[in-house]
Structure formats: structure tokens, C-alpha cells
Amino acid sequence: MTRKVRAEGTFGLYAGAGMLVAMLLAGLLVPWLSKYDANEVGPDQLMGPSRSHFFGTDLLGRDIFTRVFDAVFIDLGTAFIGVLIPLFVGTVIGTLLGISRNRKVNSFVGSLIDGINAFPFLIFVIALVSFLGAGLGSIIIALSLVNWARYARIARTRAVVVNQQGYVEAARTLGYKPSRILFRHIIPNVSSETRAYALSDFIIVIIAVAALSFLGLGVNPPQAEWGAMIKDGANIITLAWWASVFPGLALCWAGISVALVSEGLSRRIREGNQR
Amino acid sequence: MASSEIKSGAPTEEISAEQRIPDKNKIALRRTLLGRLVRSLVVGFWVMFIAFSLLRISPGDPIRLALGTDATEEAVNELREKFGLDQPFPVQFFDYFTGFFRGDLGVSFFSQREVTEVITTHLPVTLMIILLSMGGAILISIPIALSVALSRRPSVTYFFRTSTSISLALPGFFLALIGLLYFGTILNWVPAAGYEGTFPANLKYLWLPAVVNCFSLVPILSRVLHSSLMDTLDEEFVETGVIRGVKKLKFYWSYLLRPSLAPTVVLISYMVGIMIGGTVVMETIFSLPGIGRELIEAVSTRDYAVVQSIVMIFGFIVVFTSFIGDLLGYLLDRRVTLS
């Protein structure tokens, strides 16, 4: 690898991180500084982008610029929690399976994991949310119920390898408590793998959260959320393209920034391994 | 498969003497095949069980929720009896399980249609979209992966990796919406409504959903193929091929693609899973009469009898394709060990 390329790789990483930070800052500042309230119904309905409304207004005369950035923490926050819980649960269960010697439990839970993973991700989440009732809480529960199995599968494979490493053997020989070995020696090494997957999963989950709202299974109105805004704008897209395009672009921005960070980090890890 | 053994010149060098013994090979194949089949059946059972249990996690009474708040007590009880929901859970599952093999998945809570009928009418549209997307993605991915792998320039690889990960991060439903606005309303290339089921005519409704699906499929497919090609390029038989001056087309296929295809083919079930999710959203946006739209409709009316069976069918499709994918991967490259 030449030095130039490594600089390019770092560039992508920093560009992605910058995009993400910019979006989070805007999500913090815009709703605070804007002269409109995100849910405030205004007199100008379906006004195109102008100096008073940067992204125009929607069917109820609400300022889309404020709403798009008001949704940042709703969208990214839901996705973040929806990744964090399965990451934690899946890593722990997968690790326990990987180091356990009980073959019956292992093959039973293993086939359950395969069964859950067999469902197409979005379909399973849609079905679960419909049974639990629409809403962000249901989305998080559904994501946790579905996604832990993917993390568990990765963690189990990794834990089998880690469990045989010299440092784990050494810790055992030193007579450390099994719980200490598990949490201080095995899980940190297993989770490096599941955390790497979590980053790429984050992109999928951000899109899935918006897609669920788009299908009418997400937030309750009037809460601003990208998927719900795209859905509201979709019906009037020939009349007012801005009502769905700007929330859509915000969603793309979020996805691309995380993708650049994830790509840059995995590139660093790859090159680190080569050296 | 046209041939069941690897014989295309180059990779023979890679096959160990042990694998050349035909009998042993056949036994191994039969054993792995059987093992995979058993595992798929076990997973298939789980799929059915999970889909069926979904109803139980619902916090409310599904029948009452389905009928609405103003339903009378008698109506609720009557319907509950009709769908066997007054029976204990194991009995219900047994009925559902045996019913499945008789081709009976129950009836819808609302329309009273047979669920099997709903599935057989609407599944072909969805399968057609999946087939088109898959075909398109394969056609696009192979030349991209080949040219990136052969160029070997770090900047090309970097551009390839970055652009594929960006493409993967684009929300399909938003792309579909923009596509519909541009190709449907402005250019008038896509009919705004309606659908024709016959083969060449339905293409004009289905090409755009397939193209949008490709935005997530092509990155996955081409990245796996690319990294697999890079591994193949390090093999000695590729060098031998270059030195022997094998014809271009034969070189690309036998020396590069075929030994690299196995990891891609094994990925097929993963891609089918992604595509099913994407297709559900596509069908809703493009108002196509596929099974995904039925699912969304059933979800919004809380028609659980339909939801559980559609979810189960989708699970089965993935289990089936992952079985086929593993098998194809094994037949394409015997060095792959089935887990």
C-alpha cells in the first residue's frame, strides 16, 4: 500500500465522522435556534424552499428545515439503542454458547439462532412491530428480538477460537474466577468482532427504522421523523417535491456518513493486520 | 449443474489425491447433503414455530384487536372458536403444523379468504421481482468485480470499496420514490398504476423495482466476488494460464470466475433475505400485487392469520435458498467444506 492511498482512506474516515458530527450538531442547534417550532402549524402551506423556509413547508405549513433536524436524534437515537441492546445480548449469549461444553443446550440454542436468522430481517421486524403495536418502543424491542441472533452467531464462532488462546489458558492456570476470565479476557476479544459488525449493522438499522415509519409502523404524529415525513410527502410528491426529498436526503446523509466511518475503520484494521 | 465435478483445466491441480477417489467423494457428498438437509428441516421447523408463536407475544387479545373496540363479546367468542384460538397452544400448533402439509394454512380474519390462496396468487409477482433483481445484479456485478480485481490499482480498489459502501447506505424506499417521480411522472416510462401478470408485459412494471433493489445487491455481490477474485489471482494456476496463453474468454471463466464463484453463491440466501425486505417496500410504493403488499395490508388490519403464514413462507424461502446456495457452492468448488 502506498502512502497516498492510506491518506485517502483516512480522508474517507474523517469525512464520514465530520458529516456525522455536523448532523448531530445541527440536530442539537437547529430546533433550538429556529424561529419555528417543529410541530407548529403555519399559515403558508406547501411553500417551496425560500429564504424564510429553507426546505419549504409541508401540507400543514410546518417548517421542513426545522422538522428534518428535529428528527435527527429520534432517528439516530432509536437506531443506536436498537443496535446496542442486541450487540450486548447477542455477544454475551454467543460467548456463553461458544465456551459451554453442554452439547444439548448448544445445538438447541444454535438451531434457534439459525431459525431466527432465517427470517428476512425487515419482514421479521415488520411482523413483530405489528404484533407489539406501532411505535418507537416496539421498534427497539423488535430489533432486539431479531438482531441478537446475528451477533450471537458471530460471537459463538469467535468465542470458540478465543477460548483456546494461550492467554485464556494462562488465566485459568493462575486460578482466576470463571466470571473474571469471561468478562475480562474472553468477552473483550469476542466483542471486537461483534462491534465491527455493529457499525455496519447501524446503517441497516437506521434505514430500517425510517422504512418502518414509512410503512406507518413508527412514530406517532406529529413527531418529526424522516421515514414518516417521506411518507407524508410521497402522496404529494408531484405537487411539492421538497416535502419528501429533504427528509430523504437527510436519511442518505446519515447512512453515507456512517458508511464512510465504517469503511474507513475496517480499512485501518485491515492495514493494521497486514503490517 | 452441467457437470458435477471440477474438470476445467486449471483448478485440478488444487484437488488433493484424496478427493480424486470417486467413491469416497460420493459418500462425502451424500453425507454432507443429508446433513444439510436435516439441518434445513430443523431450521424450517423453528421458522414455523417462531412465526406461529408471534401471535402470543401480542400484548392484547388478537381477535379483539382485529375486530375493534366496539365488537360484542359474542362476536369475539365466536371468532375465537372459529379460528381455534380457544384451544391450548400445543393443540393449535399441531393443527397448524399438520394443516401445512395438507395445504391448509387457515383463513383470513377478515376477508375469509384461504391463506394458501392469498399466497399462491401473490407470491409469483414477488418471486419475479426477486428473480429480475438477482439476474440484473449478477450481470452488473461480474464485470465490475472482474475489472476492479484485474486493474489491481489501489486507487481503483479504494474508489470501488467507497462507492459500494455508499450505495449500500442509500435507503431503497427513498430511491424508489425518486425513481417513480422521475421515470414515472416526468419521463412516463413506468405505468402509474395497474399490473399485467403475463411475462413480457409485466417487465414494464417490474424493471424499476428491480433496478432499485440492485443498489443494495450489486455492492454486496461485487464486493464478495472481488475479494474472492483477489484470492484466486494469488493462485499459481492463474499464472500458468497466463503463461500458457489461454484464450481470453476461457481464461476469465475457467481460471478466474469459476474458482471464485463459490463464496458468492453461498451468499445467495443472505441476498434473497435482503431482497425480500426490499421487495416488500417496493411493492407498497409501486402498488404491485405482490405478497409483500399483502403482508403490509394484513399488518395494518391486524390480520394475524395472514401475517404469520406470509412471514413463515418468507422464512422458508430463505432456508431453501441457503440450502441450494450451499450445495451449489460445494459443487462449484469442492474445496469448500460445508459447515
Which features characterize this protein?
heterodimer; A: 275 residues; mainly alpha; 10 helices; B: 339 residues; 14 helices; 76% helix; 0% strand; globular; disordered N terminus
Intertermini distance of chain B? 22 Å
User: What's the SSE pattern of chain B?
Assistant: HHHHHHHHHHHHHH
* H-E string of chain A: HHHHHHHHHH
Decide which structural class fits the backbone of chain A. Answer: mainly alpha
The fraction of residues assigned to DSSP E strands of chain A is under 5%
Q: Provide the gyration radius of chain A in Å.
A: 22 Å
Number of strands of chain B: 0
C-alpha geometry of chain A: elongated
Overview of this structure, please?
The complex is a heterodimer of chains A (275) and B (339). Chain A starts with a helix and ends with a helix. Chain A has helices at 3-33, 64-70, 72-99, 103-118, 121-132, 136-163, 166-173, 178-214, 226-234, 242-274. The longest helix of chain A is centred in the C-terminal third of the chain and has 37 residues, at 178-214. The mean pLDDT of chain A is 87. Chain A has ten helices and no strands. The radius of gyration of chain A is 22 Å and the shape is elongated. Chain A is mainly α and 275 residues long. Chain B is mostly helical and 339 residues long. Chain B is 76% helix and 0% strand. Chain B has 14 helices and no strands. Chain B is globular, with a radius of gyration of 24 Å. The two termini of chain B are 22 Å apart. The interface between A and B is large, with 53 and 58 residues.
